[in-house]
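Sequence, C-alpha cells passed on for absentees:
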Amino acid sequence: MFSPHGPSLRELCVQALSSVERGYDLLAPKFDHTPFRTPQSILDATVEALSTLGPFDRGLDVCCGTGAGMRVLGALCHGQITGVDFSTGMLARARDQHPEASWVRADARALPFDEDFDLVVTFGALGHFLPAERPALFDGMYRALRPGGLLAFPIGAPPSPLSVSHWAALGFDLAMRVRNTVWRPPFVMYYRTTPLVAVRDDLTVAGFTVRAVPLTALGRRRDGSPGFQLVLARKPIDEP
C-alpha cells in the first residue's frame, strides 16, 4: 500500500497517537507517498463532471492537505484558487507544489470567508468531522460561496457487507473508537460516519439545494449502481 518513500510503521503509530493537527504535521513530508492522498482518477472524474457546470472564477479547497485538489481548481477556475487547512506541515508542502495558489491556515469548522468563492471542493476530509460537527463545516462552506456558487465533493458508495472493504472499514472505525476512548488527544478519522443520506440532509439544513451525479468514469458496483457519486450543493441565488 505504501511506496518505499512513504512513512514507516513507527511513524504511522506516532501519528495515530497524536492529535489530528499534529499527526498531519508529522505525516506531511511523506503524505503524497501514501494511499491517503486522493487518487488522480477521482480528481480527473471530478473535473470532468464539473466542466459543464461553470464557468467558475475563484475556487476554494477545504482541508486541502498537500494540495491535490488544486489540480481540480486550476483546471476549472479562471481566478484565484485557495487552499485552507489547519496543518502547518501540510500547507507548507502544498505551497511548495502549487506556488500559484494562495493558502490559509484555519479550522474548517470556522472558515474565515464571506461570499468569496464561486466553487468550493473538498476531498477525503469528511471522516475527520463527527456528525455533530458537520453543520458548522457546511455552514462555513455556505458562507464562503457567493450566491449561486457550488460546493462539490465525491463520496463513495458503502461497500457490500460481503466485501473485504466493508470489514476493513468497520474494523478501522472500531479501533479508532477504542483509541479515542482510552487515549488523548483524540484522532478523529472514521470511514463509516458520512453516508450520503445524512450528508444530504445536513447540506439541505445549511441552505443548499442538493443533488448527486454518478462518477461513471470510476466504475460501477455489481448491482449496476455507481461506485462514486459527486455531491453538488448549490447556494441559491435568492437566499431565503
